[in-house]
């Protein structure tokens, strides 16, 4: 499958929203699992699409290249930059915001309604140095992501670890293998 599918699964106490780049797999929360297979789960299908894993890796990016997100100057102070962190064939959308030379990153999802993106595309709303959910107005501190007003007051955005080295922002969160900008025309 070349085009990702966004899957949101809600359980009693948790919600998971991921992008899936695979033809089969599962998405889980604490109390629910969604399993899927695009081809209907036909085992033994010998369509010839599978590889033996011996592909030439000379063009594969290095770990540092795969984790490079953007130059520091590209991360806005008055909005957010949308990216996608990946592990294997699963993607998690995240947003980055800069304060001086510090960069903060969070999952692009409101704790009140996890299927609602804080940044639906053009950049999240920032007012009085707080991120604002465009759907119901919840306000989040930019450092720790704690909600200070709105229906999810006291909850926090899920942090994603990033670091700035030599004027470039890198993904350092070990839950993910790579990251790419969603606004990058070359992506």
Quick summary:
The protein is mainly beta and 187 residues long. It has one helix at residues 63-67; strands spanning 5-10, 15-20, 24-28, 33-37, 68-71, 81-87, 90-99, 102-107, 125-127, 130-132, 139-141, 147-149, 162-165, 168-171, 178-181.
General description of the model:
The strands form four sheets. Strands 1, 2, 6, 7, 8 and 15 form a six-stranded antiparallel beta sheet that branches. By secondary structure, the protein is mainly β. The longest helix has 5 residues, at 63-67. Helices cover 3% and strands 39% of the residues. The chain is flat and about 45 Å long.
SSE topology sketch:
Layout: E1 5-10, E2 15-20, E3 24-28, E4 33-37, H1 63-67, E5 68-71, E6 81-87, E7 90-99, E8 102-107, E9 125-127, E10 130-132, E11 139-141, E12 147-149, E13 162-165, E14 168-171, E15 178-181
Antiparallel strand pairs: 1-2, 2-7, 3-4, 5-14, 6-7, 6-15, 7-8, 9-10, 10-11, 11-12, 13-14
């Amino acid at each position: 499958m070349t085009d990702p599918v966004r899957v949101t699964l809600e359980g009693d106490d948790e919600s998971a929203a991921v992008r899936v780049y695979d033809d089969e797999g599962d998405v889980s929360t604490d109390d629910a699992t969604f399993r899927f297979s695009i081809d209907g789960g036909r085992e033994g299908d010998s369509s010839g699409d599978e590889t033996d894993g011996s592909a030439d890796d000379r063009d594969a990016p290095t770990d540092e290249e795969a984790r490079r997100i953007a130059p520091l100057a590209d991360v806005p102070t008055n909005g957010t930059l949308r990216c996608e962190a990946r592990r294997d064939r699963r993607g998690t959308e995240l947003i980055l915001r800069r304060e001086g030379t510090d960069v903060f990153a969070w999952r692009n999802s409101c704790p009140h309604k996890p299927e609602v993106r804080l940044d639906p595309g053009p950049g999240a709303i920032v007012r009085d140095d707080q991120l604002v959910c465009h759907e119901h107005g919840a306000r989040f501190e930019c450092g720790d992501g704690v909600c200070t007003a709105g229906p999810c007051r006291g909850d926090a955005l899920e942090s994603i670890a990033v670091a700035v080295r030599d004027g470039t922002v890198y993904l350092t969160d070990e839950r993910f293998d790579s990251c790419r900008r969603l606004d990058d025309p070359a992506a």
